[in-house]
Amino acid sequence: MIIRFRSFNMDPYVILPEEEYPTLLEELKKQLPASLMAYYPLMLSQKNLFKKFKFVLVDEWPQFNCILEVENLPEDLSPHRVYGYCRREEFCVVLNQMISQRLQKSTSSILLFGGPRRMKEILSMSGDEDAHSATVSTLKCYGSKKIQDTKPSWAGGFDTFRVSKHTLKKIEVPSPFIATTIKREYMDLILSQWQYTGSYCDAKEFFTHTATTFESVCILNESGEPVAWGFEQHYGAIGMIHVLPEYRRRKLGSAVVSLLSEKILRKDDFVYSAIETGNTKSIILHKQLGYEEVEVYPECIFTWFYYENEKKRVDESIQ
């Protein structure tokens, strides 16, 4: 049964029944790579490799212009992770209204994966008075500083690079190091090295599942201790690439990216990495391994927005 509800401006939205998810997945697949950040979580969920969604919203069905996938997380966990996609950037107004409704019904903040980079500009031009007031940031500033504004803004900068079976340069792990996969017992060390760990209330549970379920590479030293690693993310990119400082300049980072890319390419033909603009060393490393920049302008493949719930701020100020 299709369930419709009314938004602030009385436009109908649709809560999509689970039996329609395969159809939605096929439609998202046709729109790759622009739809990657909505396609991957839904695809993994359908394969029981990722949490089932609480619900999936579309503006219309079977023809839709935007989609919002909401993870099934406890209400007291903040932020809630959601995944958005718009066929064209102007539909981010509807996407923003969907998120605003979630904020109205919960005290949790929201972490949005996806959405066009010009989201703030478009919402400002739309004159949408019903858009929920939000504090928004991207991966670049999430967890360290926040950008105060009344509308979402694309504050960071990410360059997306793609590699194929034909362009990937294979790098062997230098002796005496050995390559393996990430084990649960490595996660405390891995998360201690990631600067955004504190931004997730369920960081250890979430990333332990991700690292041990999806493709991963971990390089060990002679004592069997992890010194470099990386793993496939729930939105399809390779990520969390890290080499301990004392082991850098030994080609271990290149080996991790190369091995991880090769693993994913065995099962999929789209392997990408989202690199912060200005991270010259990482960009050079990826290019040397055969990665090429790819852009879906103006939507952009990779974006990450944070909506801070006003009610949560009020509650915290009272305490």
Describe what this molecule looks like in 3D.
The protein has about 325 residues and is of the alpha+beta class. It folds into 2 domains: about 5-155 and about 305-319, Aminopeptidase (3-Layer(aba) Sandwich); about 160-295, Gcn5-related N-acetyltransferase (GNAT) (Aminopeptidase), CATH 3.40.630. Helices cover about 30% and strands about 25% of the residues. The chain has 9 helices and 16 strands. It has helices spanning about 20-30, 35-45, 90-105, 120-125, 185-190, 205-215, 250-265, 280-290, 310-319; strands at about 5, 10-15, 55-60, 65-70, 80-85, 110-115, 135, 145-150, 160-165, 180, 215-220, 225-230, 235-245, 270-275, 290-295, 305. The strands form 3 sheets. It has a 7-stranded mixed sheet with strand order 1-2-3-4-5-6-16, sandwiched between helices. The chain has a 7-stranded mixed sheet with strand order 10-11-12-13-14-9-15, sandwiched between helices. A two-stranded antiparallel ribbon has the order 7-8. Strand 11 and strand 12 form a beta hairpin. It is globular, with a radius of gyration of 20 Å. Mean pLDDT is about 85; it is low at about 1-10, about 130-155 and about 315-319.
